[in-house]
Amino acid sequence: MVHAPSWRVLAASLFLVVGAGSASAQSAPVPTKGPGHAAIASANYLATNAGFEVLGKGGNAFDAAVAVSSTLAVVEQQSSGIGGGFMALLHRASDNRDIFIDARETAPKAVDMKVYVGKDGQPNRDTSTNGPLSAGIPGEPAGLVWMAAHYGKLPLSVSLAPAIRIATEGFQPDARFLGTIEDRKDVLARYPASAAIYLPGGEVPSAGWTLKQPDLAKTLQRLAAKGRDGFYKGETARLLVDASRGAGGNWTAADLEAYQAKEREPLSVDYKGYRIVTAPPPSSGGIAIAEILNILAGFDLAKLDVAHATHLTIESMRRAFRDHNEYLGDPDFVKMPLDMLLSKYYADGLRATISPDKATPSDLLPAAMAPEPGMHTTHFSVIDAEGNMVASTLTVNLEFGSAFVAKGTGVVLNDEMDDFALVPGQPNAFGLRGALANAPEPGKRMLSSMSPSFVFGADRTAVIGSPGGSTIITQVLEGILAFIDGKSATQITAQKRYHHQYLPDRVDVEAGVFDDATTKALTDMGHVLRNRSPWGFMNVVTWDHRTNTLDAASDPRRPSGLGKVQ
Ligand code: DON
């Protein structure tokens, strides 16, 4: 056992005297003319192609984003869907404006923390991750309708058409999709509407199986025809509420009617001549990325060997995640010291507590095991010919969310309730320990790590993001740093990764990220390294303004993705 690091005290005192800094995004330096062609990178080739189909019908990047999102909701249902939520960053070229759409799920009015606590006082993982009680009120349908209505050029009947067609005609799920059915088969088998779709004849289907989803197609058609009311009212809403309540859930028609997607001001941070525009709360990702970059800005990493540059980055991650656990939650419910967390002076204070060659032990708390990330949640990136951009991360949380399909809808409900701090101080599925700021309350959004981001430089722009639970934040950070070092989308997605999240106090590493000498040097500095696999599923688009070239890359770790320039 060690004492809590002294930087906590230092940080608290800095808050009292400083309170400086700005959380709002100013316009970023981008060329006045678009690239003249488009790029899309997503986790599934059918979704990337759906985006291009809609661009070909006269749509812009925002229409393409609706097409990609809704197609992913059909072909990559284990990762995201209209029973889940998303956070998207938009860049509108015509007025150089950055917009953040928060389509995060909310807790239902009847939320009851007691159901997530076992008799032993420990988190009850079954209620928080399986079945209807684990599901927040979906945000994705409202967010897509909002994006289409405010920023798109085409009606939903056009931008949702590829998804409706694939749901109707069917597609052959890839090995990753089938593997997640295998992972979740016991829970899917509990719910008849889930088993009927994913376990035909009671078995996990094998390669070559065609999945047709007429109920999901009808649900999407109601959304296309009636917009928001086609999901949050009428037949879909009734089916969702009946299914939830019929299986022990607590949703009401009023919960669905009350749901609103929200526009928020994106966060912005300047780093080494680049402007990074990223996700504000209720994502913790942007705050953590900004805090880490502000700390790193005071070091000259390029002058250091890999081991020492990595050590300083790990120490910055540790400090940012510590704040994440303590302060962050839904901005509509909690007051957060954002000015402090984003202040350069605060970062100076944190930097001063970092030893140049010794790891700082994280805390008194025992380390918790975090599960492996990366098979669920999804991110895609788009740039269109005019220079409009979308970075969107979408999720149902764990594989197949709650594994509960609402009968008659084809909709898999999320299990996002586990992203709340259901038992304060106890780790969630990603080992994240929240405080009161992230406790569940009726109508409140659970904190997210989703970090869709833009990186704007004088000569180059990147659209970036990843799934991966808590590792989203560090994967996106490492991608941003690689882009600033001159790397392309292809190089960024291929780059090996590492992660530290304060607790558990260890560095998760991808095999091969460090050579033997660096591994030894980091270990000698006191870092505990642990191999972890798999890693996220980055989908990145970059634009080099000097040559007007686009690069679109899907993570080479997964064959189903497609980055395409056209
Ligand atoms: O919003 C979040 O932070 C989580 N629900 C994301 C989950 C995730 O990325 C799982 N993927 N590996």
Automatic annotation (TrEMBL):
It holds the Pfam family G_glu_transpept. The active site is at residue 377. It comes from the Bacteria. GO terms for molecular function: glutathione hydrolase activity; leukotriene C4 gamma-glutamyl transferase activity. This is Glutathione hydrolase proenzyme. L-glutamate binds at residues 104, 395-397, 419, 448-449, 469. GO terms for biological process: glutathione biosynthetic process; glutathione catabolic process. Belongs to the gamma-glutamyltransferase family. Pathway: Sulfur metabolism; glutathione metabolism. SUPFAM superfamilies: N-terminal nucleophile aminohydrolases (Ntn hydrolases) (SSF56235). Keywords: Acyltransferase, Glutathione biosynthesis, Hydrolase, Transferase, Zymogen.
